[in-house]
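input
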Amino acid sequence: VGGGASVYFWNYRVYLGEKYANTTVGIQGYLGLDLALPNVPLNVTADWVPTFFFNGYLSGFGAGFGSVGVRYILAR
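output
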């Protein structure tokens, strides 16, 4: 569980069209699960990152952000 601030820099081009750029500022919350497998040197994680964007292309609340990870544990 945690929180933080974010700054996103967007740079994209519409297919064969004009190029766009934008900067978005937001705040984020972090909620995650972490599982260390007992007999295997692997760690599996899943995080949900709800974000509120103050301005820019994605202004407003976004609940569809997160990550999934698998890490190799060198030493315990």
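quick obs: The chain has no helices and six strands.
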